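Entry type: protein chain
Record version: 2
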Amino acid sequence: MIALGDVAVMGGGCYGSFYLKQLVIARAKGALTFRRVLIVDHDAACQAAAAVVEPGCEVVVADWNDFLDGYLDPAARGDHAANDMVVPTPLMPHLMADWLVRRARQEWPDRVVELVAAETPMGTPYDRLHTDKVRYVSFADWICPTHCIEPRLCPAIGAPRTWEMRDTVIAWSAAHAKTRPIAPPAFFQCAHVAYGVGMYPAGTAADALAALRPMASSANGADQVIGSISACHGAVAVLRVGAA
């Protein structure tokens, strides 16, 4: 059985409603336990609110960024830090990159800290640089099944999956290192846990900041590639901490 702490589901719309239902079913069937499921939405009457009737489930009315500033703070999470999780929605902005920017500005208040455009193409079938400076990439040039868990045998093509987004971003990050000092990449990798729900540990955020800290504290500053990814899809940003 999988033991989870607080599970923060980002958004209470159709995706959040589905994830809540699946987590409750998984608990009822003994596949996992959780301390709380938190549906984070700006609307108290969001679609998922009607389904928040099970013990340990609640709606948190908050802006996503405001919520994450508290939820991802190790001191605020306390004893439940090790198994607290984040369930992203496929349609949200690159929240983790924005969180790292805010935290980096607190760490280095006298430096220029910003997201810079992820200019270099990654070479995946879908590969687009958006106006928010984030590069959105995917190995799928087809319509993926809804709530696909990305098994080794791809259900869309009926053949083994030969790709892994994490490996592609690591290679892309290594190429970026030829032009700029670069910290180890930060990966927020959404993986299937149970009943069609993908998530990543909340502690990944603190790990990413810790990986950035040594190089960014140098006189020259550093970049860090931030990937909110799954096996097949991803949003990739570049955080830059400027020189002293």
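Comment: The CA atoms of residues 120 and 175 lie 9 Å apart.
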